Amino acid sequence: REGGGGGGGGGSSEGKRKGKEAKPAKKPAAKKAKGGAGGGFQKEVALSDELADVLKAKALPRTQVVKGLWTYIKENELQNPANRMQILPDAKLKRVFGASPFTGFAMMKLLKPHLT
To answer: CATH homologous superfamily of domain 40-114?
Structure first.
């Protein structure tokens, strides 16, 4: 072997791409027009009186319900210091979630009866 090449084709890698030009960037996909007022997580749901008392609202989208609850939990320092995934409800949250501690993962399941 001459040229001491370790790759196929012998010669340098320069010039191999000469004939190719850069492709223009793809245009972003057009956004679909929304039909109606939205749905799913963005749809406003009515809150029970107990939950409305905590969140200071009568209706909110589910995403804002959870966000508002986490804000309330953190402002009132209701997370268990030893296990921060566990919530230790105060008097207001006990009316919504019951007296026993619960995890953040169980929050939506426990909220179901309070959202209509």
So the answer is: SWIB/MDM2 domain (1.10.245.10)
Residue ranges covered by each domain of the chain:
40-114
Sign of CA dihedral 95, 88, 91, 100: positive
Q: The whole model's pTM is what?
A: 0.66
Over the stretch 59-77, which tens digit does the pLDDT of each residue have?
999 999 999 999 999 999 9
pLDDT attached to residue 26: 73
pLDDT digits (tens, 9 = 90+) for 81-108: 999 999 999 999 999 999 899 999 999 9
| CA atoms of 104 and 79, how far apart (whole Å) | 10
**R_g over Cα of the chain:** 28
Report how far residue 80's alpha carbon sits from residue 76's, in angstroms, rounded to the nearest whole number.
12
Nearest alpha carbon to residue 78 among 68, 66, 90: 90
Which positions ≥6 away from 57 have C-beta within 8 Å?
Answer: 47, 68
